[in-house]
From TrEMBL:
Organism lineage string: Eukaryota, Fungi, Dikarya, Basidiomycota, Agaricomycotina
Stored PROSITE patterns: PROTEIN_KINASE_TYR (PS00109)
PANTHER family: FUNK1 11, FUNK1 6
SUPFAM superfamilies (alphabetical): Protein kinase-like (PK-like)
Chain positions covered by the region annotation Disordered: 558-579
A molecular function (GO) term: protein kinase activity
Residue intervals of the Fungal-type protein kinase domain: 173-615
Name of this chain's protein: Fungal-type protein kinase domain-containing protein
One matching Pfam family: Pkinase_fungal
Length: 755
């Protein structure tokens, strides 16, 4: 979209002409990520989940094989000259195509592909099946200068021989069944991390991928991996020459397992409709509608992907969808639905159950139906079922240390450098990276899917200040509804507030109840804060109160009143700077266990405040990014203690509010200065009252949320649209997004009716 119509203006409410690279483009949720972004994803989230090495009984449980079938294949391999047994049945035999000694990576790849394809053909022949798997070398050495993660491939892959019609238009990751990484001697850590990176890319590119098997080749050794949403595990090392039956067992498993046993999701399938862009396949799934009928939906536009948890964790993915029976209608007559696919921890209530518990309300997204996915009737899709309890038996290793070891020798060229990493040979030293996990059972994740009736845009996609304030106002109404039913949202953020473009009272909707919980059952420890921590306040981030109850109550007794003498000033910082900064002072802060500090709905009202601050600090105007600034990083992107301390200062001190927030707003947001300050004062008053009257006292925050809403409503009424002349880029993008249609109707044999 051209920016040629933008003009420079001296009006402080009109942004000057801007670099188009700063404009937000959000048509697709999962553009190629960079190598640096993949690094950050692995560090932040993926390596928090357990990895188990040398898991006993791995092959026996996950790759069961009839010994008679194995013997049949080994005899056929001997007859074909694929395997040469030991002399007179004694000694170690060898696969003739596979080197007996340590050799180069290229030679190992060539030999393995030759062996795996020969075995696969024989296995399919013996089972009278049409071949459906092909092993090939896909490594592209010339990609080493690229900054895009997807340009780096596994050394070898086993891929499906079928799939979408135009395979040439698809990336290497779309049809991978088994990725294979090959170890260079003394670089085993690098190979392990590369395997994890390729696996993450496959999960990103395969929406129908539930779990993944993979191989790591190390000299004459082979190791089988299994990766799912709860973590990873790997088999003991297999000597390829000494254990030919295990090699056959593994290759047979890849050839003969059912699709769902190989990790595919049978309930999410390629659509029979053809896309205009073959590199973006269309998907279909079935969901129940309001009338109780099961309908087929076309998932035509992916609008969200949880990047940090695409490998392990929730892996939330969201699409816009149409009913398939509506495809012949003109696009303006098709209702847009939203379908959300996610993996949910078993200790968390299912989102659909929470929606049903609180019931419908203005300001809250509408759930049509939800289900726990089943690949086999009567059996829920869960990670415990996939791994069959094997993970607990393995040796837990520290992937973060392996990552650091691999990275430490980097010379700046991807994947991880060229210098030897030390004398680690071919095999991973699990004793070196062992961590004691106390035999704790890994998390179990359930696979869920929900159908929602409301489509819209994240709050940060606002088109005007009026829409920003109105959308926030209505979403808070939705929040009041769920807290009236004893439920806290658990993940207040800008992405969980949906702008609909509709009228009041549903201009903004609160969405995503994945992390919701009953707040009257919350533990005093506050739990480790889940969700978007950038929008959490000091008490949730640090378990330290904004105001110390002893000092507040002492001050109130001295002043003979409940709140400070001049609440209108908004400055509750009654301590001197030395006391305020001394967070180790026993007089100023006490441990949370002594104060029964629990997560409270008021904490989430503060979350809405931080959302508004974040948008006002990180945007120049609607749809325009703002270059990052240090105050923004300190408030929203630093460690928990730093974020908590600064946010505490901002809430209880007007000068800190000016220093960190009001003094750093873009000119477009200057009309919101008084609004933000008024909202801060309400929060400050609430935290003071909680410290003075007691955290659970019913009067501590009574009426404050309504005052919060009144301020938003009054501010909305006072602001102008403030759209610069010709600067309607967000409006234009929203129109384009609303009418986006990727279906090739001619190729699909469909005639769309005229509207």
């Amino acid at each position: 979209m051209s920016d040629t119509n933008y003009t420079t203006s001296q009006d402080p409410n009109v942004p000057p002409a801007l670099d188009p690279r700063l404009t937000e483009l959000y048509l697709f949720s999962s553009p190629p990520i960079t190598v640096h972004e993949m690094d950050n994803m692995l560090r932040r989230r993926s390596f928090r989940y357990p990895t188990f090495a040398a898991v006993p009984e791995f092959l026996e449980v996950l790759f069961p094989q009839d010994d008679r079938v194995t013997d049949l294949i080994i005899r056929a391999a001997i007859e074909k000259g694929l395997y040469q047994p030991g002399v007179n049945g004694t000694g170690t035999g060898r696969w003739t195509a596979f080197p007996a000694d340590r050799t180069s990576v290229d030679t190992t790849c060539d030999a393995f592909v030759l062996l795996a394809n020969a075995l696969s053909v024989k296995i399919f022949e013996e089972n009278r099946l049409k071949p459906r798997l092909i092993w090939e070398i896909v490594h592209t050495p010339h990609a080493s200068a690229s900054t895009v993660e997807a340009d780096y491939t596994p050394r070898v892959t086993a891929s499906t021989t079928g799939g979408p019609a135009d395979l040439s238009a698809l990336g290497w990751w779309h049809n991978v069944v088994v990725p294979v990484e090959v170890v260079e001697q003394h670089r085993v850590e690098r190979a392990v991390i590369n395997f994890v990176r390729r696996t993450a890319q496959i999960f990103r590119g395969q929406p129908n991928r539930r779990f993944l098997y993979g191989l790591v080749l190390a000299g004459q050794f082979m190791q089988v991996w299994m990766v799912d949403r709860s973590g990873s595990m790997m088999s003991e090392y297999i000597n390829i020459h000494e254990s030919p039956k295990d090699v056959i067992r593994v290759i047979s498993g890849f050839c003969l397992k059912c699709d769902h046993e190989l990790g595919w999701d049978l309930t999410l399938r390629h659509s029979t409709l053809r896309p205009l862009n073959p590199s973006r396949p269309l998907w279909e799934c079935s969901m129940f509608t309001n009338d109780g009928q099961e309908e087929v939906f076309v998932l035509y536009h992916e609008i969200y992907l949880c990047h940090d948890e695409v490998l392990h964790g929730r892996a939330t993915r969201v699409w816009k969808a149409w009913k398939k029976i509506d495809i012949r209608k003109p696009i303006q007559e098709r209702k847009i639905y939203v379908i959300k696919d996610a993996w949910v921890r078993e200790d968390i209530r299912l989102e659909g159950d929470t929606f049903n518990l609180v019931g419908p309300s203005d300001g809250l997204a509408r759930l049509v139906s939800y289900r726990v996915i089943q690949q086999v009737p009567g059996q829920d899709d869960e990670t415990d079922q996939m791994s069959q309890g094997l993970k607990l038996e393995g040796v837990k290793i520290d992937m973060q240390q392996i990552f650091q070891q691999a990275e430490s020798a980097s010379d700046g060229s991807f994947p991880m450098g060229t210098d030897p990493l030390g004398d680690t040979g071919w095999l991973l030293d699990i004793d070196k990276y062992y961590v004691d996990h106390g035999r704790k059972r890994p998390l179990n994740f359930r696979h869920t899917r929900a159908l929602l009736a409301d489509f819209g845009w994240s709050l940060r996609r606002f088109t005007s200040l009026k829409e920003l304030l109105g959308g926030l106002h209505d979403a808070i109404r939705g929040h009041i509804h769920i807290t009236d039913h004893g439920i806290m949202h658990g993940d207040i953020s800008e992405s969980n507030i949906l702008l609909t473009g509709g009228p009041k009272p549903n201009r903004g909707l609160l969405i995503d109840l994945e992390m919701a919980f009953e707040y009257d059952k919350a533990e005093p420890s506050l739990d480790l804060p889940r969700g978007h921590r950038a929008f959490m306040g000091k008490e949730v981030l640090t378990s330290i109160p904004v105001f110390d109850p002893l000092l507040v109550q002492r001050k109130s007794r001295n002043d003979h009143e409940v709140v400070p003498a001049e609440p209108s000033s908004g400055n509750y910082n009654y301590l001197d700077d030395e006391e305020l900064d001394d967070e180790s002072s026993d007089n100023f802060y006490r441990e949370v266990e002594d104060m029964s500090l629990r997560r409270h709905p008021f904490h989430e009202i503060e979350g809405f405040f931080w959302v508004l601050c974040w948008i006002s600090l990180t945007r120049e105007a609607p749809g325009v990014y703002r270059p990052p600034r240090e105050p923004v990083d300190l408030i929203f992107h630093s460690d928990l203690d730093t974020m908590g301390k600064i946010k505490g200062h901002i809430i209880n001190d007007a000068s800190s509010m000016e220093e960190y927030v009001l003094g750093n707003l873009a000119p477009y947001f200057s009309p919101l200065k008084s609004t933000l300050e008024d909202l801060r004062r309400i929060l400050c008053e609430g935290y003071w009252n909680r410290a003075n009257l007691g955290y659970e006292h019913p009067s501590a925050v009574q009426g404050l949320t309504e005052r919060f809403l009144d301020i938003l409503e009054a501010s909305e009424a006072s602001v102008d649209l403030l759209q610069p002349p010709g600067d309607n880029r967000e409006v234009q993008r929203r129109i384009y997004d609303r009418w986006y249609d990727p279906i090739d109707y001619a190729a699909s044999g469909i005639n769309v009716l005229k509207g």
